[in-house]
Design a protein that fits this description.
Number of domains: 1
Helix content: 55-70%
Structural class: mainly alpha
Mean pLDDT: 85
Largest sheet: none
Number of helices: 6
CATH class: Mainly Alpha
Low-confidence stretches: 1-5, 29-40, 132-139
Strand content: under 5%
CATH superfamily: Ferritin, core subunit, four-helix bundle
Shape: elongated
CATH topology: Ferritin
Distance between the termini: 13 Å
Order of helices and strands: HHHHHH
Length: 225
């Protein structure tokens, strides 16, 4: 029996998705609490890791929303549609929060430098990249201006739009697993570079929620192979 179609498989997916939703709500609550209770301090600069993450992760999240809404029109599979809906709603909400950060910090939404520049800067422990924690001179984990980790190409989005049913489900899950892994990489990168309360809260939630979703989607993809 296909676990994705079985009652127990559906319940498992709903339980995992429910857990991810709770994690997302906790992140939102932490964000709101931070805005209300955080002591007055200087806002991050426009070239800070916090600002760069807020801008770039909005773009990253918005593509996840786009892919999720696309696949919901291409399949009737209840489990895939449920996961896609959860991803679309949670990431749209987080993108809105990051937009709000920049507004609250009186910073422009447009970046003054190439995307991902913030990810090439030293971490809090002085390492020159996320792959160098010795204070050495390793190459940056991600070069400024390169495509963001896990982002689908225009050709891949066009391919997704051309598919239906099981083929669309498989391709969506494949793309979204890679997309989530890139999102986790970006969240871990800002955690290595920031102590800003709201940023740390959201980035920690991204790592937790998207890691769970990766595990879920990998099992769903395996069931559809």
């Amino acid at each position: 029996m296909d676990l994705a179609k079985s009652p127990s498989g559906g319940r498992r997916i709903r339980l995992i998705v429910a857990g991810v939703v709770v994690a997302a709500l906790l992140v939102a609550a932490a964000f709101a609490a931070g805005r209300l209770s955080a002591p007055v301090a200087s806002a991050p600069s426009t070239t800070s890791a916090e600002a760069g993450f807020a801008r770039d992760m909005q773009v990253h999240h918005n593509q996840a929303v786009e892919m999720s809404m696309i696949v919901r029109d291409l399949t009737d599979d209840e489990d895939v549609r449920l996961v896609a809906y959860d991803i679309a709603t949670s990431q749209a909400r987080q993108a809105g929060q990051m937009y709000g950060w920049l507004d609250n910090w009186n910073l422009p939404q447009a970046a003054p430098e190439p995307s991902m520049t913030w990810m090439s800067r030293p971490t809090l422990d002085g390492a020159s990249s996320d792959h160098d924690h010795t204070g050495g001179t390793a190459e940056p984990a991600h070069a400024p201006g390169e495509p963001m980790p896990g982002m689908a190409t225009d050709a891949q989005l066009d391919e997704l739009k051309s598919l239906t049913g099981l083929d669309a489900e498989r391709y969506y899950l494949t793309l979204m697993i890679a997309h989530h892994k890139g999102g986790v990489e970006m969240a871990e990168a800002v955690l290595a570079r920031s102590t800003e309360r709201v940023v740390v809260s959201l980035a920690t939630g991204v790592v937790t929620a998207q890691s769970s979703e990766i595990e879920l989607m990998e099992s769903m993809l395996a069931e559809r192979s």
